[in-house]
Predict the structure.
Amino acid sequence: MTGSVVLDPLVPLVVLYVLAGIAALGLAFAIWRGLLGWALRALAAIVILGAIANPSLQQEDRAALSDIVVAVVDESASQRIADRPDQTADALANLQSEIADRPNTELRVVTLGDADGDGGTQLMTALSEALSEEPQARVAGMVLITDGRLHDLESAPPILPAPLHVLLTGRDSDWDRRLVVQNAPAFAILGEPVTLTLRIEDQGAAPATDLVDLTIAIDGGAPLAFQIPVNEDIELPIDLPHGGMNVMQFATPVAEGELTDRNNEAVVQINGVRDRLRVLLVSGEPHAGERTWRNLLKSDSSVDLVHFTILRPPEKQDGVPVNELSLIAFPTRELFLEKVDEFDLIIFDRYKRRGILPSIYLENIGTYVENGGAVLIAAGPDYASADSIYRSPLGAVLPGAPTARVYEEGFTPLISDLGQRHPVTTGLEAFAPTSGEDGLPGWGRWFRHVEVTPTQSADVVMTGANDLPLLMLDRIGEGRVALMASDHSWLWDRGYEGGGPQLELLRRLAHWMMKEPELEEEALWVEPNGLTMRIIRRTLDDTTGPVTIIHPDGTETIVDLEEVSPGRYELLWDAPEVGLYRLRDAETETVIALGPAAPREFEQTIASATDLTDLMAATNGGVTLIEGGLPSVRAVRAGRPAVGNGWIGITPRDAYRTADVSVTPILPAWAALLLAGLLVIGAWLREGRR
């Protein structure tokens, strides 16, 4: 119970001041006239003014409130390495014990985990939110149990109501090695080197090292090993091996004694694009589809087309002088011997042997395929003849042998059972201009089909007349070949009977032969969206096995995929954290980085309270190394140093809650009136006797 005197005037203070002024003038007049009762009149005025001021005794019934100490415990990823979890647990237990021994003091504990995405440690945000939930007048101290690595210093509270202390985890002997990849572009042109800047840096009390190992793997393949110096920027030129997404994984082995291996790897994803697609079109003779091939290829501005066509075969004798047929000789030797490797795709359109291209040229094209080149054969009746290109050195790499039989009848090209699963032809019906009937695709018919016998390794993805193989694909060495056993695909482009998806089919064929990852028959890849990954497996088999997901910390999760379309299996999976994930099944393997391979939590892993120095100094708090011993808790006055050797200080706030308030007038109105009346009468009597 506490009491105090308060004034509760019966009139506004301005009126009270005016009345006091009038009374003072009256008193001065009485003194000037020499009235003997002026003193009694003055006392009467004071009593009246005091009664109007209404002084009262205010008494409060107060209940003492406890002091609050806010503790923010950092349990982010960087706090889960080495023995920091044990240090954190010991520091928190000691703080709880110290606060429990103090009278009228409470401890509020806030636990901080990893921020969403790659937000890092939001330490100041957690502190601000904790303070906003407590009365500022009761906060006696704040304690952060952390490694000092935070990523939201700008979110610190503008005013801290009590001393701020940091109990710092980590040890003086800690060191870590980190791999950094800088200036990695999102896109790069195939055939042109892209330069990446690598840096391996040692942090903390690292041992002296000159060179460290570095491995580079592309798309989960076999890694290449190098040695590079430490703490130096290294310029690394890289040629992308294929179009589409190239996933490059850089890693340095874990050294004995370093804190973590979570920042020893980095993943760079670069989309490889072709500047120009160089195509050589070889036409055996003029026909209705020749210009269609040419127009299709020329319609794409990214295609550089060289068209070699035979307008006048050697056996044609019409008496026209050769010098009147052409201005310059076509550079066949340069094209088919010296520069054939510069072409991305070679198309033979109804070509047959006529002695124009020597066998050595065709043999060189076969070598070109085995070394990684691509050849597409659009076969007409010539393929079934004795002069067939199959009966040349090039026949060793072709996926089908002619039987010499040609069907001249209408048929609708169909996608085979295998073709429904093959990326070149799967879903091709969706590009039909009309809807089909009787189970047939909604595209026009063709009217010529060359009968061929596929090789054992060839994939038949389309069928034609009498369900015979129409489109065959095969891999030869490092290269790929495709055989279309008809020369009537141009009817689709001309819109005959509604036409068909010739352009889409040619695009897919070209991309498959260019080894674009999106059209690989056996592929495993991931489409990330935040921390959710869509796992996609494409296969020509009827079933696929489980996929093993290797987490950034080395733990494994095995998942089963569901078939969403023929040959395509998918699963949506939520990852628990950002970082580098490896996925593999019995045949394929891939890597994916959700966020950076090394999150912000692992950019700086050596414990340091440097970023918090200014905040602690402003509140007279300080940092205490847990390694050096756990501190006791003392009470200090506001404005005094709040940290010392082996102790930290809190400022008692003496806060209270008012339970009841009573106000009692000091001078009742009747007493004031009686006293004032007596004084006035006394003054009158005194003056009357004189």
